[in-house]
Amino acid sequence: MTIWLFPGQPLQPEQATPDDADFHALADLCRAYCGYDLITYKPLAGHPLSHHTCLQIYGVAMSLYRARKLRNAGSVPSLISEHSLGIYAALAASGSIAEQDALELVSRIGSCMSQMGAVEEYSLGCPIGLPIDPVEAAARNNGVFVANYNTSRHFLLAGSKQGIEAALAECQAAGAFSVSSFPCEAPLHTPLMAEVRDDLAAIVAEYHIAEPQVPLIESFGQTCLTAATIPAFLVDELQQPVYWERTWKAVRATGFSRCREVGSGQALTKFNRWIDSEAGTL
């Protein structure tokens, strides 16, 4: 049994750009449905896409590209799972939406979320090496949130820039062996996203969602999504944390024989090795 894992937004584009028919087909879809040039990594003239929205489109496009290449090589998933914005390509791979809909959805949702950055300056913070209790305390003490529970020692915080900086300083003082921060336009996977909930729901309501043809485990409650639950999930997941450690353990319990990370980079693969090493299943 093969499982495909779809990662979230990359921090930057890959150095090498593919040059084959599948990549150019997806580049055409990006231009047509997003106003984004997948080759230059820039929006087309007349399409005011933000830097972060461009990265989100890029991430989904590269996941779709890698899914095409895997299928061409004979790989067929028996199970699919997703992390954060990986949900859009995961839905396409499951047969629930078309590739162009996955790209257009992430473009429109990304543009909607980017409006939050015009009012407030947000950041992401990554403390590594601490257990969850001091991380949650630091988040609570500084008005920010744990957005990703990736492993027992790797977390992502989201919230105001000032709050993130203060929370990371607290984590460092508590013994974290690494802290880093990144600018962002919206505090994804936190209750603060309720500000644009109605706008996001209106966007999602415009799309036809079919029943997934491959079981798709989501990364909040580790349930299998259905056509009936997907629309609400696409809105709700942006207000809820990603619980990747729980998700990977749920996936592990299915007894798969082969795992493929389908996207840009190897972030999930690294998280999984960490989780497996602690559980003694590596």
Automatic annotation (TrEMBL):
Its EC number is 2.3.1.39. One of its GO terms (molecular function) is [acyl-carrier-protein] S-malonyltransferase activity. SUPFAM superfamilies: FabD/lysophospholipase-like, Probable ACP-binding domain of malonyl-CoA ACP transacylase. This is [acyl-carrier-protein] S-malonyltransferase. Pfam families: Acyl_transf_1. PANTHER family: MALONYL-COA-ACYL CARRIER PROTEIN TRANSACYLASE, MITOCHONDRIAL. Gene3D superfamilies: Malonyl-CoA ACP transacylase, ACP-binding (3.30.70.250), Malonyl-Coenzyme A Acyl Carrier Protein, domain 2 (3.40.366.10). InterPro entries: Ac_transferase_dom_sf, Acyl_transferase_dom, Acyl_Trfase/lysoPLipase, Mal-CoA-ACP_Trans/PKS_FabD, Malonyl_transacylase_ACP-bd. Keywords: Acyltransferase, Transferase. The keyword Transferase applies. It comes from the Bacteria. Residues 5-274 form the Malonyl-CoA:ACP transacylase (MAT) domain. It is an enzyme of class 2 (transferase). The lineage of its organism: Bacteria, Pseudomonadati, Thermodesulfobacteriota, Desulfuromonadia, Geobacterales. GO terms for cellular component: cytosol. It catalyses: holo-[ACP] + malonyl-CoA = malonyl-[ACP] + CoA. GO terms for biological process: fatty acid biosynthetic process.
